[in-house]
Specification:
Low-confidence stretches of chain A: none
Number of helices of chain B: 15
Distance between the termini of chain B: 4 Å
Oligomer: heterodimer
Number of strands of chain A: 13
Largest sheet of chain B: 9 strands, mixed
Mean pLDDT of chain A: 91
Largest sheet of chain A: 8 strands, mixed
Order of helices and strands of chain B: HHEEHEHEHEEHEHEHHHHEHHEEEHH
Structural class of chain A: alpha+beta
Distance between the termini of chain A: 60 Å
Strand content of chain B: 5-15%
Number of helices of chain A: 15
Number of strands of chain B: 12
Helix content of chain B: 25-40%
Shape of chain A: elongated
């Protein structure tokens, strides 16, 4: 069987968090009473005209600059024509062959373009399925209609589900850092479609692609892409052909279903939007926006690595994961001068993530940055050993609270060099004569049995290093 | 008849200001006439109450509004079945400005459905009769507005012009019709036909009224990104001479498609321009021949998208008991649009389709650019360009309904100007016999009006109005039907 290479391009829709909609004065909203944020313009009433939102244009330029795109000195809006009840005018105002942001690049992935458009409203299908098939009727909530979007299109530069996921996380962190969008996948302010094809390794010509629509979490993106690569691989291995089509990935079942084939593809009949004049940002405006850009995740990762001495992987994880990075910096701030930065990084990205999940926002967990900073400090001071500290973190994740109080309440304080510990060690040596012999003959592995005994007796409060030191002392090693 | 009916809008403003005339009386007079009319020029008549306009520049002069303009709380249908029952929640900027200036709303006038037509026969409310001859069309698409003004059912009216829809009905009804520079007047609230061409403007009895209405309609509007407003204040015209002004005839005009009577009136008009001190010259407009073809690609293309919003989902008519979404769309639009509108939606959809876009839409835009360049070059050697407004006098109701191409050819002189976004005015130039075979004397039995179209460079409306005013003063023209309409 042939070896295949997957070729993936992403189309990402970012809902901008401007005060008002793209072409009218209605406030943006999420989850409000349906059809309370509408006006004649965004309802497409006869005679109404779009007026572009300046803030949205600035945000689009900001995104373009952050993605190293060329900003077009003059770009146009086009009409994309199709009928659907969630599209009040019967066309979407979008950009076609002259987008505001041209080619760019982020972390090695080349970008085709980034353009502005308006979001559709929301069809709500009444029925058990919640989807259009089998719905008894459909109602429309126009609150979302006209929300400003920036669509970012990559070149086919991605080769696996995992790479897509990681890159998308960086993109999300970058856009979030800009403060122009909530980039929340669950709420739909960040949406991703993937164009996927495979080809035999070494072949330059691209295979037939399929489009995977609207995956609403990073995990589903990775799984969906991998599932589609596997499906295409199986087809080719069986001597069949991949058909150009649009697919839906069902994360619950892991299955892919066809939404429409190539034959059913729309002819959108794009043409220049005659109701709008070209967007022509001045060089001064572009410079002003460039100067206002915050530190972006890629630069942040470098700083974490070079200035804070954090391992490259941890630095990237923190910098590319906006929530994680922000939380990490809060813990650093709480820890103050002289904090063990590397250890804080390890606790955030290791122990905390293991408990709350990589996609969670730690700021929304029960563990306050102050608590985590204090816990790491306790570890530094050897006031609690690693095992004890992990137990404290379990408690913090469970119900929050103060690490000192938890150590006290749970009796987790580390047992340092004390008579009590010395006594327990004596008992351990006495109970493990074979281990003592082995140690004496130079087999240090035998220390494990001694430490195990001590830990059991102290319920884990002893420090392994300390125990080893005392054992060596007692045995004269 | 009432002497009040003889007052132009500007004269009425003066009389109202002096207190010689009562605004309520004037409004009632016109309102009653509008309510009792027999030529089908109105589709609805407004409230009998007169807003208090004392001290405002238009002092309560009533105005008729083409049904293409949204007026808050008043059914607005662009004379289409598909908008039956549509009550706009807002008023078009151009109309709101006139009302703010003290114009009192009289009613909605008939028009070709969605402004698509040159005869006012494509209306869900039926055809309109030309007050000069009830067997003939008033022109279109602003046919109701022109007929109402000509018949003394309104002192003046708003119109809209995409390819000639103000100028041609003004010519057919013996009135003044001004299409301002694209962008001079806000399009907000004007139901869109072809967005890059649509422009509101006045239909009036004389040039002074056209200047007066323009003054209070124009202006940049933040609700319309393409609006700029005039670059200079609109002045009331007062010139007495055309000395030093060059009037150019685009050469060569193919007079084969023009009625001899129209040509004769045009030639006489040129002589009067010369007599008033103007100079007649010729300029080449080499691409004007392609204008109609380009227009009938661009306008339907834009219309095909502009009319997509009439889908039965949010307003207007919806087909009863649809079996599904597609069925709802197909029946709503199939039943709601008239044949000419459907024809243009199909033309435009085709022209924009994948594989045809370059050959049609793109090519048409290239022609448009060439035409713009032609005019720019032409205006380097003249002040104005003149043609007949239409190649014929008003034709008979039903005469051209089966031949859309013949109907489209009637836009020959007006369409190139629209593609270039230039200001143009149609001024009564004289009369021709009812068969168009020869010029006719004022008062001759059955004679019909012929209009002169004068075109100026972008935003030179003041100069255009001055020239039209001098021409108007130099022209002996029959009194309009409003003077012989009974009171």
């Amino acid at each position: 069987m042939a070896e295949y290479e997957a070729v993936i391009g992403l189309e990402i829709h970012v809902q901008l968090s401007t005060a008002t909609k793209m072409f009218c004065g209605c406030r943006l909203s999420f989850g409000d009473t349906p059809n309370t944020h509408t006006c004649p313009v965004c309802l497409g009433h006869p005679g109404t005209l779009p007026v572009p939102n300046e803030e949205a244009i600035r945000s689009a330029i900001k995104i373009g600059l952050a993605l190293n795109c060329e900003i077009a000195p003059r770009s146009m809006f086009h009409r994309k024509n199709y009928f659907y009840p969630d599209l009040p005018k019967g066309y979407q105002i979008s950009q076609f062959d002259s987008p505001i942001c041209g080619e760019g690049e982020l972390a090695g992935v080349q970008l085709e373009r980034a353009h502005m458009e308006e979001d559709a409203a929301k069809n709500i299908h009444v029925g058990d399925s919640g989807r259009v098939h089998g719905a008894s009727r459909t109602v429309v909530d126009y609150n979302r209609g006209g929300t400003p979007l920036v669509e970012i299109v990559t070149k086919p530069d991605i080769h696996s589900g995992a790479q897509a996921r990681e890159w998308l996380q960086l993109l999300r962190a970058t856009v979030k850092q800009l403060g122009v969008s909530d980039v929340n996948m669950e709420e739909g302010s960040l949406r991703c479609d993937a164009n996927i094809s495979i080809r035999p390794v070494g072949q330059t010509e691209l295979g037939v692609k399929t489009e995977l629509k609207n995956m609403n979490s990073f995990r589903f993106i990775e799984r969906g892409i991998d599932a589609e690569i596997a499906r295409q691989t199986a087809l080719l291995d069986a001597g069949e052909k991949v058909q150009q089509e649009t697919l839906h990935f069902d994360p619950a079942t892991g299955s892919l279903t066809s939404l429409r084939s190539k034959e059913e593809a729309h002819d959108y009949r794009y043409f220049p939007e005659p109701d709008l004049v070209p967007v022509a940002p001045s060089p001064e405006l572009i410079d002003e926006i460039r100067a206002s850009l915050p530190e972006l995740p890629l630069a942040k990762a470098e700083r974490y690595e070079n200035e804070l001495g954090i391992a490259a992987d941890t630095a990237k994880f923190l910098a590319f994961n906006a929530d994680m990075g922000a939380y990490f910096e809060s813990v650093l701030a709480a820890a103050g001068e002289g904090a063990n930065v590397k250890r804080i990084g390890d606790w955030v990205t290791g122990e905390l993530v293991a408990r709350i999940g990589a996609d969670a926002n730690p700021a929304e967990s029960n563990v306050s940055p102050e608590a985590l900073a204090r816990l790491v400090e306790l570890v530094n001071e050897k006031a609690v050993n690693n095992t004890g500290a992990k137990t404290v973190l379990d408690k913090l994740v469970e119900g929050g609270g103060d690490p000192d109080a938890i150590v006290e309440a749970e009796g987790l304080a580390a047992m340092g060099d004390s008579d009590e510990l010395a006594g327990i060690i004596d008992a351990a040596l006495e109970a493990n004569p074979k281990a003592v012999d082995d140690l004496k003959s130079g087999n240090m592995k035998a220390i494990g049995a001694i430490i195990g005994f001590v830990m059991k007796q102290t319920q884990g409060r002893a420090d392994g290093g300390e125990v080893t030191r005392i054992v060596r002392e007692k045995l004269g090693l | 008849m009432s002497d009040l009916l003889k007052l132009t809008a500007a004269q009425a403003v003066e009389a109202l200001g002096r207190g010689d005339v009562d605004a309520g009386e004037l409004h009632s007079l016109y309102r009653e006439r509008a309510a009792g009319e027999t030529i089908n020029s109105y589709v609805s008549v407004g409230d009998p109450l007169v807003p208090d306009a004392a001290g405002k520049p238009l002092a309560g002069v009533p105005i008729a509004v083409k049904d293409l303009f949204c007026v808050e709380g008043i059914e607005t249908r662009a004379c289409s079945k598909i908008l039956t029952g549509y009550i706009p929640p807002y008023t078009a900027t151009a109309i709101a400005r006139l009302q703010d200036a003290g114009a009192s709303y009289l009613g909605k006038t008939n028009m070709d459905e969605f402004a698509m037509g040159s005869s006012n026969e494509n209306s869900a409310f039926g055809a309109v009769q030309n007050p000069w001859d009830p067997t003939r069309v008033p022109g279109g698409s602003s046919g109701g507005s022109a007929a109402a003004v000509a018949a003394g059912l309104a002192p003046w009216a708003t119109g809209t012009d995409t390819g000639g829809s103000i100028r041609q009905p003004a010519a057919f009804c013996g009135l003044v019709g001004l299409k301002p520079t694209y962008g001079a007047i806000s399009r907000y609230g004007m139901i869109a036909f072809a967005s890059s061409l649509d422009q509101a403007g006045p239909i009036t009895r004389d040039v002074t009224d056209a200047a007066l209405m323009l003054k209070y309609m124009q202006g940049r509007d933040e609700m319309d990104s393409t609006s700029t407003g005039m670059t200079e204040d609109v002045m009331m015209p007062s010139s007495e001479s055309l000395a030093g002004k060059k009037f150019a005839i685009p050469a060569p005009i193919d007079w084969n498609g023009v009625q001899p009577g129209v040509k004769e009136v045009f030639d006489l008009a040129c002589k009067r321009i010369e007599a008033a001190g103007g100079e007649i010259v010729e300029v080449p407009l080499p691409h004007a021949d392609y204008a109609l073809s380009a227009y009938y690609v661009i306008a339907p293309a834009e219309a095909s998208a502009n009319l997509s919003r009439f889908d039965g989902v949010r307003f207007g008519e919806r087909a009863a008991d649809p079996t599904g979404l597609t069925d709802m769309y197909e029946r709503t639009r199939g039943d709601g649009f008239g044949p000419e509108v459907k024809r243009r939606i199909m033309l435009g959809t085709y022209a924009l389709s994948s594989g045809y876009y370059d050959a049609y839409y793109n090519r048409a835009q290239q022609v448009r650019t060439k035409i713009l360049e032609d005019y720019a070059a032409a205006f380097s050697s003249c002040d104005f360009i003149i043609t007949p407004t239409a190649p014929s006098v008003a034709f008979g109701i039903g005469e051209k309904t089966d031949d859309p191409l013949a109907m489209y050819l009637g836009d020959l002189f007006t369409v190139p100007v629209s593609l270039a976004g230039l200001p143009a005015i149609s001024v009564p130039a004289g009369l021709a016999t009812s068969d168009g075979s020869a010029a006719a004397e004022p008062g001759a039995d059955g004679a019909l009006p012929v209009g002169l179209q004068i075109v100026a460079p972008h935003f030179r409306e003041n100069a255009l109005l001055e020239a039209a005013y001098v021409f108007e003063q130099a022209t002996e023209f029959a009194d309009g039907p409003w003077t012989w309409a009974g009171s």
